[in-house]
Amino acid sequence: MCSDSKLSQLCRLIDDSLRPYTELHVVSVTREREILVSLSQLLRQVKLWTEALDSDSDNGVAIGLDCENDCVCLNKILTRLIVLLTVESQYVKHLACNVLVVVSEFVAASGSHWDALIRSLCVCVDLAITVAISCSTSPSTTGANDFCSSSSSLSLVLKPKLKNADWSVAAGVVRVSRDILKYLKSENDDDLVGVFIEAVNCFLSTVPWNLFHEIHVGPNADAQKSSRTDVLFQRSLFLGNLVQFLCSLVEQGGAVEAAGGSGDNHHPVFSTIINLVPRLLSWCLGEQADCVGSNNCISQYFKHKLLVLMVRLIVQICPESSILISWLQLIHYYFEELLRQPIAPLKCNQENCLEGSPFLSNVSDSEVNSLSSRHLQRQAVFLFLRCSFSLINSKGGPNKRCACASWNLCLNYDSHAELQCCGRKKGLLELYNWLQGHLPTDMLVDHEMYFEKCADFAKSFLQLYVNEDDVLFKVLLQLLCVPFSAEKQFEKEKGSFPDSKGNVLFLVSDLFNPVLLFHLFLVELSYDHQVLLDYLISKDTGISCAEYILRCLRKVCDSWSLFVECPPSGRAINQSSCKKRKVSLDGSSFCEGDLFEPVKGCGRSFLEDESNDEKEYDCKHTRGYFEEAKECLLSLKISIESLNRKNLFPYNPNALLNRLTRFQELCFEEEK
User: What 3-state class would DSSP assign to 251?
Assistant: First the structure.
């Protein structure tokens, strides 16, 4: 073995430290303390060596790793550490996983054998899963031998040592993979990430997922000593780690593609994970999830992580219409109760506490579960809207002979027979049916209160998301994608109120009118420009908030009269969330006419008996809302300019400042 090989030195260190405990096929748990001491020493030593490698690399010292036996060393390292995951000690397993992670950091810092390490780790996961599900298929037929020339030898050496392995071994290696991905994210090395994702995609494509419903600990009789409950728990542990890893993989893969500007050519791993989604839902939440059904916490966790995974996937890429339709079916099957929950804000007596805070006082278990359910509701509703709007805006559009080709589309109650018409029809019908479950039954009959009820629904919808910043701007940006592209044609065709009773686009345009929603957004923030500034400079929400404000300011400038004279209704103002300062107003007002069209005067819709005094009162308070919004946005402009002059703004705000300058010019013209 080459004496100058850094990997061979690491191999000797690990071999000398762990050989006494891993030589036998079964590692004795009675030596737990000795194993923990050896692993702790290894962890510290490998970290020191990695720091030295990083230092040498910074100083321009080349790291030579040309030894022919380095792959053999790598396999020996992995074998020694993976075997420790079979020990019935959670502390040994945890520490062994940590050592595997620092070994990967060492290999990455050395500048060689990264590809071999990642592919060998995938072989380990593949082998652990194969053993856990008692699959008779050999690793070679599942793709293990295709990774690299040394993989077959790794399988031959490791397989006998894993004969008593359970799901916790596979869960441990998946956890290591996720920690490696977190390390790569901090290193910001696209080449290392690319190799990692390519190997993982190959692994995910070759695992015998169709056999996953088989629940066994191992192929021999001794392994059956574990109770069914323990096996199910271990299986849930693996599934939890797997879904969590896939969430991180999608996020990191999307970041790499965005940096590389790959456009519509998405990495195959996204398609692989999309194909896994129905199975993951079935394993974690379906009939096969009998271990989850009795544990509400595990069920809530799986729902959260699976929703996060699906949201990240659909945000990164736009799946085909067939996938979107199947996802809508899955959403209804697994998350229907979340879609049906009332949109109205949660009544909260903890006005000074953040939702979900560990410092919530005097909160019962049922109230805590309600808070968790509220979070899941946000994710499920956003995913549902994203799928529906993606179908509505799908490329290619409907056939000219299809009823969907007309903007004047009225969905009657017998429209279910026309679902095969096109994807757009399916998206519109899904949206319409969902809204029907949340809007007052007399909304389209009570002309006098129609617009006020629209504003009240929009306010409640906004309050659903206002306590979760990262999802808030995702959904706000999504609502800007409501198909308003044919606005002029739509206005001509939709006609009078009674003729548009069943028109989905008519209804959605009034519920989620972007100018109205932007004004409601400012109301919810109590017109505090500092809150907007915090959103803009936040690492998590900055870019999405800037995009939302930019697009809304454009719509405000294009529909200036609407923004000036058509504020939220008084009832919607008074329904401010418990988290924000309430803005009170006596009485309610709204503007006559259509939410799309510039308003020429103040007054209440469909009311002809309103006195002159009432009209003057409404106009006076309407101007008050506009003045609040104007002061907020102009103060925001001043703050951004101040930070930008000091080079303290985290990104180039020129586009935002230009749009705010245009807004300021319109305000000056309004004062003339």
Answer: helix
**Predicted local distance difference test score (pLDDT) of residue 127:** 87
Q: What is the pLDDT of residues 199-228, one digit of tens each?
A: 999 989 888 887 776 543 344 444 444 466
Separation of alpha carbons 384 and 79, rounded Å: 45
Give the pLDDT score at 492: 45
pLDDT digits over 336-371, tens only? Answer: 999 999 987 655 444 444 454 444 444 455 554 555
Tokens standing for residue 204: 């995910």
Higher pLDDT among residues 571 and 454, named by residue: 454
Of 129-133, 312-316, 364-368, the range with the highest mean pLDDT is: 312-316
- CA dist 591 and 69 (Å) reads 79
Residue 637: the pLDDT is 95
Selection from 262, 282, 172, 160 nearest residue 219 by Cα: 160
- Alpha carbons within 13 angstroms on the beta-carbon side of residue 127 total 31
> Cα separations (Å) of 475 from 468, 471, 490?
11, 6, 24
Q: Which residues on adjacent β-strands are paired with residue 503? A: 410
Residue 465 phi/psi, 5° resolution? -105, -10
Q: Quickly state the pLDDT bin for 589 (edges 50, 70, 90).
A: very low
Q: Decide if 591 contacts 605 (C-beta within 8 A).
A: yes
CA dihedral 65, 66, 72, 78 (to 10 degrees): 20
Mapped onto helix, strand or coil, the DSSP state of residue 269 is helix
- State the DSSP string of 115-147: HHHHHHHHHHHHHHHHHHTT--S-TTTTTGGGS
The residue among 418, 595, 450 whose CA lies nearest residue 520 is 595
Which of 495, 505, 492 shows the shortest CA–CA distance to 428? 505
* DSSP SS3 for 410: strand
- As given in the structure block, the two tokens for residue 637 are 């402009």
**Residue 97 and residue 124 in contact, taking contact as beta carbons nearer than 8 Å:** no
In order, the DSSP letters of 426-472 are HHHHHHHHHHHTTS-TTTTT-TTTHHHHHHHHHHHHHHHHTT-HHHH
Cα–Cα–Cα angle for 481, 474, 375, rounded to 5 degrees: 130
Give the separation between CA 394 and CA 270, rounded to whole angstroms.
19
Q: Could you give the CA distance from residue 559 to residue 545 in angstroms, rounded to a whole number? A: 21
Quote the tokens at residue 235: 């299986």
Two tokens at 184?
Answer: 């790569």
Distance from C-alpha of 3 to C-alpha of 256, rounded to nearest angstrom: 37
| Alpha-carbon separation of residue 492 from 390, 406, 432, 555 (angstroms) | 25, 12, 22, 20
pTM of the predicted structure, to 2 decimals: 0.81
Q: Which amino acid is at 288?
A: Q
Identify the pLDDT of residue 218: 42
The Cα–Cα gap between 549 and 555 comes to 10
| Cα radius of gyration (the chain) | 30
Residues 569 and 456 sit within 8 Å (Cβ to Cβ) = yes
Lookup result for tokens 């996938």: 323
Q: Determine the residue type at 449.
A: M
CB 256 within 8 A of CB 190: yes
- Quick one: average pLDDT of 556-582? 63
Interacting residues of 163 by C-beta distance below 8 A, sequence separation 6+: 25, 131, 218, 219, 220, 223
**In terms of C-beta density within 10 A (0-12 exposed, 13-18 middle, 19 or more buried), how is residue 345 classed?**
buried
In sequence order, the β-bridge partners of residue 410 are: 503
The per-residue DSSP string of 593-637 comes to S-SSSPP-S---TT-----HHHHHHHHHHHHHHHHHHHHHHHHHH
